[in-house]
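Project standup — Tuesday

K.O.: blocked on the structure for the chain from last sprint. Re-posting the sequence here as requested.
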Amino acid sequence: MDRDQRSDYRLAEPPANLRLGATCGDDSGMGTVRSHEFWEHQSSLPGLRSVIDPNDRRGWKSAYLDRLHKAALARHLDFQRRDRVLDFGCGIGRIARWVAPRVATVHGIDGYRTMLERARSEIVAARVRNVLVCAYDGERLPFQTAAFDKTTCVWVLQHIVDELELSVVLSELARVSRPGAVLAFIERVSEQREESWMPPETIVRRRAEAYAAAFSSARLSVRAAQPICDDGPIWHNRRIDRLVLGGRLPTRLFAAIAHIDLAVRRRRTVGSWTDHLFVCERS
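H.V.: unblocked you, prediction finished:
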């Protein structure tokens, strides 16, 4: 990264000892005691179980969904080498680490320090040098206005259960995005508001129309919205589904399979729950 790119990365003034791969800020204002306990437990789970499916002990389902999310983001976010990217709700840093080689800088932010500790250790282990992770208190993002060119946000807004808090978060994401910036959100939508297996006050399911209205209120224009994953099998084919989720295909093929799956699902009826990709532009 050259000097011009560093100076153009308009973060709020950081602590003097802040460095790439470090954590900053205080997450003490985020969430309830119950949600803190839940995310502390999640962050202790190995691999992608901590952020995708905690019950996926073999890991094939989580590995596939990880590739699917990244394929969907790659389709709509034309990453450029000079881009400044925000990964909002970065968790263990899986998206931030994937984006990093494609752009100038990535700033991952999360409300739970245990997740940030995992992210930092995995960033250091991967020797990624252009990612900074930082804590978020749920109110004002610690960045200057118009700091970012692109934002990724995967399975995060569904954990903001209060509608007023959601409005604050989206307004902050709009503030720190430059005019014309592209923001990509992946969220699970459903008519059923609660998830039975999740602790209360940790998740809420909204309809796609509710998300679209919330984005619009925050001056984020929705330029694309499409289902990327539902309760049906991969490729609408149970044999492919069994091969992938049963670990009978090498994971190096998952990215190609995911690209085909995305094309097939666009033509399918939305099921009882569906992961939706929302691509927004900062107006």
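K.O.: great, moving the ticket to review. The chain has nine helices and seven strands. The beta strands are 84-88, 105-110, 131-135, 148-154, 177-190, 220-230, 273-282.
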